């Protein structure tokens, strides 16, 4: 197919507001009306690859997501990764190290562009999950943060004491190789805060030597009385997991590891 026929196929299958702008040999920018929520257009290029053609976002979509979220969480197990992977597989789009690519099968250029645009729309929605769904990713995001900031030989996730045979008092992350290990908890809601309070009191009763750190999703959402009881037994609380507190937590963990 020549470029005129490809452009016509794009317009017929996707929408009439599409242009093909040549950008060097066998490479064209595909101008469409489709945008991210901030108004920026999707970046889509059509280029020759071997004996065929591919559509590519030239790694722009994940770069765009990185402005509002930590895209590293898409490499870990969890809801965001599941949504991201499903969005790609549903429309047969490949992730080549951050570049999203859709091979064109035969002369089906219009179908390829339609599927590629649909995939980019779904990928862009990853940063706009409902509040309930975002809440479920809090622990995943925290664990991903810890993996980035703590060497793997210094941390154990979902740790249980030898005295806790039934596993009633799990620690989200135990940071070890120090005089008093850090027991770090993520606290997304009040029920978890109450469970951690009981765990810390139990560890005190067992006379375990440790320091406790709690990262709240939103400390201000907690009721005053249970929060007061929790703060009585917790050594270091972080009131939220926003960017500012992520920096503080990173500094706190780095100093703790250096002092070990």
Summarize the structure.
The chain has 260 residues and is of the alpha+beta class. It has nine helices and eleven strands. It folds into two domains: 3-129, Yope Regulator, Chain: A (2-Layer Sandwich), CATH 3.30.1460; 133-259, 3-Layer(aba) Sandwich (Trna Endonuclease, Chain: A, domain 1), CATH 3.40.1350.
Question: In what order do the strands lie side by side in the largest sheet?
Answer: 1-2-3-4-6-5
Please tally the β strands and state the result: 11
SSE order, one letter for each helix or strand: HEEEEHHEEHHHEEEHEHEH
Rg calc: 24 Å
Would you kindly provide a written description of the structure presented here, covering whatever features stand out?
- The protein is α+β, with helices and mostly antiparallel strands.
- The protein folds into two domains: 127 residues, Yope Regulator, Chain: A; 127 residues, 3-Layer(aba) Sandwich (Trna Endonuclease, Chain: A, domain 1).
- It is built from nine helices and eleven strands.
- It starts with a helix and ends with a helix.
Search tags:
260 residues; alpha+beta; Yope Regulator, Chain: A; 2 domains; six-stranded antiparallel beta sheet; five-stranded mixed beta sheet; 41% helix; elongated
List the helices and strands and how they pair.
Elements: H1 3-13, E1 19-22, E2 27-31, E3 45-49, E4 52-56, H2 60-65, H3 79-90, E5 94-96, E6 99-103, H4 109-124, H5 131-136, H6 138-149, E7 155-159, E8 171-175, E9 182-187, H7 190-205, E10 211-216, H8 224-233, E11 236-238, H9 243-259
Parallel strand pairs: 9-10, 10-11
Antiparallel strand pairs: 1-2, 2-3, 3-4, 4-6, 5-6, 7-8, 8-9
